[in-house]
UniProtKB/TrEMBL annotation:
This is protein disulfide-isomerase. It comes from the Eukaryota. Its main location: endoplasmic reticulum. It catalyses: Catalyzes the rearrangement of -S-S- bonds in proteins.
């Protein structure tokens, strides 16, 4: 808009001299504003710069600062939630405030706090400028508010008698209570630290001897109380090792989940954030009473694998319909079972579905023991797959083409929905046109959402791999700029680029994550 007005100025008959004076006055006014330590607000968010930053720290006990870039899409999407969180905290008279710094303009602050990506959120407590705390919560208004509330007040409620603790347990579907004989000891401190981070779980703490006795405890123990599955799960504190915060966090997350989860919009984040290494999925049409009855055997098999395998029921006619393509399935394939290894998205399938609890247990144990090969997706090769300049590979044809010892094969692994893949499509076609007369060079592509390979895992899109001619099944990942000339240099040098200063991938754009909105993603 400013540039447009600048261009239109002479045409509208404005006087250049007056405009220059006005521009100079505006510039001086802005400079005066920046040099002042006055703190202005936008939607209850403090607008900070190097001249008012110290004042903001001194006036606010807890200050969460977002370092952003105006052009950053993630920052733009966060802005409304950040402002909403700031307003909620302000309205409840919390000592916690939110502020923001344009890190592209305030380079001294960005350098001081080591800002290398946007947005970066840091918490400053009691004016301490040297050791800010990294924000670890969710990037939505509720997540920000809860995270700040935990740091503004005690992270766990002190429970002093049996009536209070009983009411506390009954107040929520899920609560964690630490029973410690010394609330100032190391184990209790570790518990408070975990409570501050796990903002979606309500925490209490107790030290009275009568409360230990009431809940059958004799030593320091963290207890998880639930209104589902087993009602009380105990995690005793090891007297020698103490309380490990990472391990306690993992145990609480695992046991906070129902033994068998249903995949819904509300539970998907919990399912994916649990960090359980395997997911066992039962795909059902939940409008069918006959199929619903299969949940009994599924549930009976789940107990022995808690923490190692997460059991999830997926409704193929509900929220689960969107994940079916990830498994190469349709709703008509239900009922069926799949096991997914989360670290590489490998999928495992029974030779023939058997829904008894013993068969499910046997199958899972065989996968865990490495006795079952993964089930790999493959589309059918198009009839003209090798007649176009860019050869179209599928799972079934990949081996024979990529590892042909007489060819140098350059493959683009892509997702049809990926904008970075779409942006480089023309360059890949041009590269193929350039080398279509070369018998020793093949330019190819494979849709990795429809095809899987046993020994190659694609983590982001696009991924480019070069398979040089000759024996040995070698593979080289291409990580440089995605343009025709650089691709050509890479090919002409046998899968290497001449030594040059490193360049950002696609001028700083990261690849699209290779995740799918599925219980395996």
């Amino acid at each position: 808009l400013v540039l447009s007005l600048a261009w239109l100025g002479p045409a509208l008959g404005g006087e250049d001299k007056d405009e220059e004076v006005i521009e100079e006055e505006e510039k001086e006014k802005k400079e005066d504003e920046v040099l002042s330590d006055e703190i202005k607000e936008e939607d209850n968010v403090l607008v900070l710069h190097e001249h008012n930053f110290a004042r903001a720290l001194s006036e606010n006990q807890l200050l969460l600062v977002e370092f952003y870039a105006p052009w950053c899409g993630h920052c733009q999407r966060l802005a409304p939630a950040f402002a909403q969180a700031a307003t909620e905290l302000r309205n409840e008279s919390s000592p916690a405030r939110l502020g923001k710094v344009d890190a592209t303009a305030q380079t001294a602050l960005a350098t001081e706090f080591g800002i290398t990506s946007y947005p970066t959120l840091k918490l400053f407590r009691d004016g301490n400028r040297t050791h800010p705390l990294e924000y670890t919560g969710r990037m939505d208004s509720q997540g920000i508010v809860r995270w700040m509330q935990r740091r503004a007040g005690p992270s766990a409620t002190l429970l002093q008698d049996t009536d209070t603790i009983a009411a506390f347990i009954n107040s929520q579907d899920l609560v964690a209570i630490g029973f410690f004989k010394d609330l100032r000891g190391e184990a209790a401190e570790a518990f408070f630290e975990v409570a501050a981070e796990m903002v979606d779980l309500t925490f209490g703490v107790a030290e009275a001897a009568e409360l230990f006795q009431a809940y059958g405890l004799s030593a320091d123990t963290v207890c998880l109380f639930k209104k589902f599955d087993e009602r009380q799960t105990n995690f005793p504190v090891d007297p020698a090792r103490g309380l490990d915060t990472a391990e306690l966090t993992r145990l609480l997350r695992v046991h906070s989940m129902q033994l068998v989860m249903e995949f819904t919009n509300e539970t998907s984040n919990q399912i994916f954030s649990a960090k359980i290494p395997h997911h066992m999925l039962l795909f059902l049409n939940m409008s069918s009473p006959e199929q619903l009855s299969l949940r009994d055997g599924f549930r009976a098999a789940a107990g022995g694998f808690r923490g190692e395998v997460l059991f999830v029921v997926v409704d193929v006619t509900g929220h689960g319909a969107d994940v079916l393509p990830f498994f190469g399935m349709t709703a008509a394939d239900a009922p069926t079972l799949r096991l997914v290894k989360m670290k590489n998205n490998r999928k495992y399938q029974m030779e023939q579905d058997n829904f008894s609890d013993s068969a499910i247990r046997t199958f899972i144990q065989a996968v865990l023991d490495g006795k079952v090969k993964p089930h790999l997706l493959s589309a059918e090769p198009p009839e003209d797959w090798d007649t176009r300049p860019v050869k179209v590979l599928v799972g079934k044809t990949f081996e024979q083409v990529a590892f042909d010892e007489t060819k140098n094969v350059f493959v683009k692994f892509y997702a049809p929905w990926c904008p970075h893949c779409q942006a480089m499509a023309a360059a890949w076609e041009e590269l193929a046109e350039r080398y279509k007369g070369r018998e020793d060079i093949v330019i190819a592509e494979m849709d990795s959402t429809a095809n899987e390979l046993e020994n190659i895992t694609i983590h982001g899109y696009p991924t480019l791999h070069f398979f040089p001619a000759g024996p040995g099944r070698k593979m080289v990942e291409y990580k440089s700029t995605r343009d025709v000339e650089t691709f050509s240099k890479f090919l002409e040098n046998g899968g290497m680029l001449p030594e040059e200063p490193p360049v950002s991938e696609v001028r700083g754009q990261p690849p699209c994550p290779g995740l799918s909105p599925a219980p395996a993603g």
